[in-house]
Specification:
Blueprint (H helix, E strand, L loop, with lengths): L5 E4 L3 H13 L3 E7 L6 H5 L2 E6 L10 H11 L3 E3 L9 H9 L3 E2 L4 H8 L1 H11 L6 E2 L6 H11 L3 E5 L9 E3 L5 H16 L4 E5 L5 E9 L5 E13 L2 E7 L6 H17 L4 E10 L4 E8 L6 H8 L3 H9 L16 E8 L1 E2 L5 E2 L2 E2 L2 E3 L6 E5 L6 E2 L6 E9 L2 H14 L1 E3 L5 H9 L1 H4 L7 H4 L1 H4 L10 H9 L16 E10 L4 E9 L2 E6 L2 E10 L3 E6 L2 E10 L2 E6 L2 E7 L14 E3 L4 E6 L6 E2 L4 E7 L2 E6 L4 E6 L6 E2 L4 E5 L4
Parallel strand pairs: 1-2, 1-4, 2-3, 4-5
Antiparallel strand pairs: 6-9, 7-8, 7-9, 10-11, 10-13, 11-12, 12-15, 13-14, 15-22, 16-17, 18-21, 19-23, 20-22, 24-25, 24-31, 25-26, 26-27, 27-28, 28-29, 29-30, 30-31, 32-39, 33-35, 33-38, 34-37, 35-36, 37-39
Helix pairs in contact: 4-5, 12-13
Amino acid sequence: MTPIRKLLIANRGEIACRIIKTARARGVATVAVYSDADENALYARMADEAVHIGAPEPAHSYLNIEAVIAAAKNTGADAVHPGYGFLSERADFAKACADAGLIFVGPPATAIAAMGDKAIAKRRMIEAGVSCVPGYQGDDQSDAVFIKEAEKLGFPVMVKASAGGGGRGMRIVQDKAGIADAIASARKEAKSAFADDRLLIECAVLGARHVEIQVFADAHGNCIHLGERDCSLQRRNQKVIEEAPSPVITPEKREQMGAAAVKAAQAVGYVGAGTVEFLYDPARDEFYFLEMNTRLQVEHPVTEMVTGFDLVAWQLDVAEGKKLLVDQTGVHFDGWAMEARLYAEDPAQGFMPYSGKIRLLDFPDGVGVRVDGGVEEGDTVTTFYDPMIAKVIAHGTTRDQARLKLTTVLKKTVLLGFAHNRDFLVSLLEDEAFDKGEADTGYIERNLERLSKRNAPGGAAAIALAGAALVDLPFGDQLTGWHSRGSCGFPLHLVTTGQQIIKADIRLDGAKITATNDGEEAAIEVLSKSETTIHYRHEGRIGVARFVRNHYHLEIETDGDWERYTDFTLAPASENAGGEDVVKAPMAGLVTSVRVGPGDPVSKGTVVATVEAMKMEHQLKSPRDGIVAEVLAKEGEQVVIRAKLVALKAEA
């Protein structure tokens, strides 16, 4: 056995913070690596040492094997933990660590290679007798072959990248008309994300559940499973809420799936933590191998909560050459756990990712949940990486108890500075189908409009609250002629993130604020106000609103509802430029394609350009039928949020 003394973490954000905590508890020194964009990141501040490895773009930093190995050697680290994402499933990285005399906290390079290519892995699983989804995973990658195989399988089908994971390079195709575009799009995204554009194609199992098994193996031939996680609530093949155990898996089925997962791991000589993912068909009570993630999963905390095991500590034990702490008979499950991923993205605006400074971040105390975060108040979320803010995990004796605890803590969580998915997570947790354990992998997409609908913070009192946030105490200091015994007012012109226009009148009378909008009136009594908090009374009920003001932007959160307003009451006209004649960048990012030129005719919904931000490609479409007047951006150009990309000729 070789004890680990100093551990370099070849990752960033939340998972780097998570690994540092376990290493610190074991007395192991830690080394962080950071890009230009992460110089002041939380994980870099937490580590014992931090080493700069390059520019913000992952290819020049977190994917730069030579830079990471050099950082480990120069700091005297004797081991490297890859976390998840980036280099975690790169066989060449595991080999480079071994060649440099470093302990790689993960499986051997041969196992990563065997499972890292989905097509090869699927062929090996078929040979090992593990049930797989029917499909094509051959070497001939021509479009003609894929189209032919899709027709043989029957629609709908799933086109998937052979390399990588995280939902990148995956497209579901409903009919033959969409197959060519899906292949081209999946290839492009796979090439960008994994530098590998090979694909495979499978039958799309409708109504399926995404159920994965956590496996663990040591170098002494022992391999066990730690039960299942249900990750069926997904959006664009990316997990949103995970839980352990699954509400649809019986103890008997768990043992069958666990045995299959162990067989899959043993077939490739696996060592360390891994996850074998299955599609489970409730109608047939059958499961099919999807892929194996040869690393720690984002959702590993739910398994830790129900088993009581620290999986990162187990990873370090196995990497040091120790045997597993328990055999299969020593694995027991206690209660239920659920995890929600809090992201800087707006579900009401097509899950548009956001970047910016975190102006207010507050997770409630005393609720009895775990928060695995990678940022603090005052930190900045950039456009270069995954926009995760934190994972919130609740444990309960029953599923309903875990669900209610997670719902409560999310409602009490305050995140201000940019749009986020907190309200969407609450909607999912309170949804009747999820409450009953009936939501499958397609549930979010089928119900997206309803689930992503945002409620005004404060309900009927929302506009009055906005008025209270926009004036200083004592009310009316900036208003001519106001005095403490009189009343005054001002007009209010706000636009929500969903482009709802609010034109209201605000009347101030002592501590009372009344808002009149479209003939309807609502009033609040302000009990107290600080720079970020308003205590108020509305129709006999006392509430608390949190808010931040930044130039012409106002964010308000109360009782689990959030909104960001742009205040056009005093804003210059340029703030509202653009109209329906200009296609603008919805976020800062890289222009990956410009598909039109001056003089080109376009129809409403035509894709005119694409922008890549936070590891996802976003298609920008023409707002109406018309003629392109001017193209204002170039392919390969980095643009800021709301940058004008394509202008249409004015309508006659």
